[in-house]
Design brief:
The longest helix has 32 residues. The protein is built from four helices and no strands. By secondary structure, the protein is mostly helical. The model has no long low-confidence stretch (mean pLDDT 85). Helix 1 packs antiparallel against helix 2 and helix 1 crosses helix 3. It has two domains: 61 residues, Arc Repressor Mutant, subunit A (Orthogonal Bundle); 37 residues. The protein is rod-shaped.
Length: 98
């Protein structure tokens, strides 16, 4: 059986990255000290440098702008469906004899 993949919370990842960026420690040193994979720390550092405010949003969570986009797409789908229903209702009632 395979090993269960370790997960780390946002605070842990930020602390590890800041040890490299702010304290000047090497990725290799921090990885050894914390018992994490060196490649993981490189990836965390890259993600942090790309977007400091939204780095490591958490398990299954989207960045705020991606979450907003998903919400807007869902709302647009609902509005289109409602519009189509109203169009059909208007066409139906337009055919009704008075």
């Amino acid at each position: 059986m395979g090993e269960k993949r370790k997960t780390y919370d946002k605070e842990f990842k930020l602390s590890a990255v800041k040890m490299v960026l702010e304290e000047g420690l090497s990725v290799a040193q921090v990885s050894r000290d914390l018992g994490i994979n060196e490649n993981s720390l490189h990836n965390w550092k890259k993600k942090y440098l790309e977007d400091k405010e939204n780095a490591f949003p958490g398990k299954g969570r989207l960045k705020p702008e991606d979450e907003e986009l998903r919400r807007l797409k869902k709302e647009l789908k609902t509005v289109k469906m409602e519009r189509d229903i109203l169009k059909k209702a208007m066409a139906f009632f337009a055919k009704e004899p008075e």
